[in-house]
Amino acid sequence: MAASQGRRTLICEIDAKGDVAAAFETPPLAFTAREVLPGLSAMVMGTEESLKEYIALQLRVPLVARVGPLARTFDFVASAAPGVKEILTVGKLCWEVKERHYDLVVVDASASGHVVAQLAAPDTIARLVHVGVVRGQTTWMREILHDPDRTGAVVVTNPEEMPVAETLELATRLREQTSVDLAAVIVNRVLPELFARGEEERFVALHGPDALAALVAQAGPAAARVLDAAALAVALRRERAVHLAHLRAALAPTVPLLYVPEQFARLAGRRTVAKVADALAEELS
């Protein structure tokens, strides 16, 4: 799970849900990045902290201890001007890339309804502001976001009807409303095919009353529950395969589609993260 030797990676959680901290079994994260594994740091995005850093680094204004009144004024302006609030989020991340503090920046982004506005924020501001410091800052942000070798959106979905529909809608919005490349789609919770053809024929035959009674007599009453669970897994696998086929057909052929198998674990943690990482490494190889 650690970053490659000599490389530094940053994970940023936008909505401060606590998922990243839980995944790496570490105390709650803050705006200031903290190393959670060798070579791997993590942080959460905070609007006021982002505003303070923006004032200090971008506007060259001395940092003040409290920016409450300024933050309230900012909220007022941000409510009236599109892209203003979002520029703090995407600007912070682009700054880390620009300054090369990390070799890789991974963002656990907002829900699909908000992420497009965040990614489009520098373009939105550039259309509204034609001169000045802010315009100059959006220029280098746009250079980073528009370069597919430096920035890519990775959409994570489940093989179910509604998530697949939302994924395809998000892919369309990314293409039409931003200049950010759709680098890949990851399908989570993919169930394995349990049986080959011959094995499935024998499995179906076990559901006959005589065969089931004989099986229970030999293996105990739990055998019937195991058969029911296997039948449910097979049905879900076949149903989800339809949605996977629809997703593959609707995506551009150039977009990689990566599968992560269902992780049969009660709790998320480093062990689950390692399994997911191994699955993705196998897909990418």
Kindly list the characteristics that best describe this protein:
single chain; 285 residues; alpha/beta; Rossmann fold; four-stranded mixed β-sheet; three-stranded parallel β-sheet; 11 helices; 7 strands
Number of helices in the DSSP assignment: 11
- The CATH homologous superfamily is named P-loop containing nucleotide triphosphate hydrolases
Low-confidence stretches: 76-80
Proportion of residues in helical segments? 40-55%
Mean pLDDT: 84
* CATH architecture classification name: 3-Layer(aba) Sandwich
Helix-strand makeup class: alpha/beta
What is the string of SSEs from the N terminus onward? EHEEHHHEHHEHEHHHEH
| Strand segment tally | 7
**How many domains in all?**
1
Q: What's the CATH class, please?
A: Alpha Beta
Q: Give the biggest sheet.
A: 4 strands, mixed
- Basic shape: elongated
Which sequence of strands runs across the widest sheet? 2-3-1-4
- Estimated radius of gyration: 24 Å
Query: What is the first-to-last residue Cα distance?
Result: 17 Å
Named CATH topology: Rossmann fold
Proportion in β-strands = 5-15%
Describe the protein's topology.
Elements: E1 9-13, H1 19-23, E2 34-37, E3 40-44, H2 47-57, H3 68-80, H4 84-98, E4 104-108, H5 112-128, H6 133-146, E5 152-157, H7 161-177, E6 181-190, H8 197-205, H9 209-219, H10 222-250, E7 257-261, H11 270-284
Parallel strand pairs: 1-3, 1-4, 5-6, 6-7
Antiparallel strand pairs: 2-3
Helix pairs in contact: 2-4, 4-5, 4-6, 5-6, 5-7, 7-10
